[in-house]
Amino acid sequence: MSFNRRSRFPLARACAAALVATVLLAIPAANGARADTPEGYFVSVEELKRGDRCVGRTVFVGTEIEEFELLILGVIRGAAPGTDLIIGRAGGALLERTGILEGMSGSPVYKDGRLIGAISSTWQFSKEPIAGITPIGEMLPALELMDTEGHASGRPGLDELPGLAMLPEGERAASSLARICDTAGMLERRIDLHSASNAVAFGDRVLSPIAAPLVVSGANADYVHRASRILGPGVAPLLGSGVAPGPAAVPGSSSGAGWNAGELEPGSAVGIQFVRGDVNWTAIGTVTHRDGDRLVAFGHPLFNAGAIDMPMVAAFVHAVMPIQSMSFKYASGGELLGTIKEDRNRAVAGIVGPGPPMVPFTVNIRANGGERLFEFETVSNRPYTALFSGLAFGGAVSSAVKASGPVTVDMSVRIDTGEEMVEYRDVFHTTEPAMRCSGELSLLLSFIAENAFEERELRGVELDVTIREGDSWTVISRVDADRKVYRPGDDVTLRLFMRPRQGDPFERELSLRIPNSITPGALTVRVGDAVSFHLGERDRLAAGAAPRSYEQLLNLIRDAKPGNIVVAQLLSDSPSLSLSGDEMRGIPGRAGLAMASSATSGAVDPSMFSVLRERELAVEGQVVGSFEMTIHVRE
């Protein structure tokens, strides 16, 4: 029996048939299947014809699997390269009223008790419950992939930095972390979180995979709406409960009947959980086929991430919500039942049993005179660790402070990589605290986990955050030096005139000592905020600013300046240099060049200026502004 569409390429057709045949022969009959051979249990697309009457299975309320009628309308060969698509019309009073539901992805369809495939796609605003059905022969290879020797979990290969998309667009230029990532060459990646849509277009009408309801708890409604724009069309975030009800909360189930979370069978609601704990993010779908302790679901990808390790959980459907554009199942994730191991083009596949490794988070937020502690864990799959950790953190912030309006955030982060503790602190002003916090954390985690030098796992993250409402940023309005001409060894005393957004202007002083060995001539004094400092250093060092090792990458974080710091530098126009990414400070230009010429290895990168002295000054809230001036040294 053949499961591949007719092809003009005999070799490709033969290879596809051989693959499916291998999968089918390796799969014994599922629980509840007829006593036929495995081949006899599955229906090929060649066996289907218009008018065939079939039966689908899914959950409409609680955990009870219900059947519904479905009429085959036809089979589209080559709907996408190498794939076929079955079109069917569902029946029944509920679906006639609601149409195909978000959350039905993976609902199995049977003909005479034999499995055809999974409901996986539909049209928005459709007047009838018409669905696209993924043939089961195209889903089964995902089971085989779990057994391949090369299965490498936790390393899906997306090239984007999701944190950059989370940052409010008007505040990206003000993010020190964004500037640091740029210095490390990480912002050259394109942001494309929506590559797994797999829509099939017929003219201007688009048949799209059914979005999975992504149930979120531990966030406010405005934040969830904003998050939906980050995640794209594959999931549809909505507020909900993070924990499914216990047996006593299920009508007629005080003894536990009707909520047996441990039983997953074709038609059962199932969840893929990205965050669990005080904050929960769970995508809901349906089991299509179970083979012992292994199963396939959804009938389409979640993110098309390949080999993954994400928690598979039971799901409880509270209600069906009829919506004109696309109705959905309002559900909650529950008991941990196993691990989703594959996220492929035509299905997700998992195994019932232990859950996957997770990354624990502890978040302490002080705001509005109170303090809240959040504890949760996120998936350990890059880049989805950075994506959902940022979203979970932002959700916690959104539930603790106002959704929008000016605030100042003081954020300290400790990251355990198993090899070292990475510490980072920043102070920033924002008008969108939840989204800004989510983007900053996501960028930081990507910076560590996605580095190009050494493999690092995230073992645990601690965040300590203080949020003060109101405008508390400060502008550097003017910088004066005590004079214009100095001698070697003199102190250059600077007066900084500061103007807060609210409150009275004030002044601060700091001094920079001119080295005794300085050659007479002109020097540059540069005073600025943290972002100006990072941009100035990148321009000054040119190619030498880019890290050449993991240790140098970490130094970009260690040397980062929080947003409440003013940095003053005394610069000489005498060139300095960097050897393999390490700046050779304190070495005269000619001597440094001589040393570099004798080096047997390493890249030599000249810089435009040498830093003679550097001082810092802390102020209340974020500081903005930068100034440069020229002074002169004479004998």
Which features characterize this protein?
elongated; 6-stranded antiparallel barrel; 3 domains; alpha+beta; disordered N terminus; 635 residues; single chain; Dna Ligase, domain 1; 13 helices; 33 strands
Structural summary, described in words:
There is one protein chain. The protein is an alpha+beta fold and 635 residues long. It folds into three domains: 1-158 and 196-356, no CATH class; 359-469, Dna Ligase, domain 1 (2-Layer Sandwich); 474-633, no CATH class. It contains 13 helices and 33 strands. A six-stranded antiparallel beta barrel has the order 1-2-3-6-5-4. Strands 11-12-13-16-15-14 form a six-stranded antiparallel beta barrel. Helix 7 packs parallel to helix 11 (530-541) and helix 8 packs antiparallel against helix 9 (384-400). The longest helix is centred in the first third of the chain and has 17 residues, at 10-26.
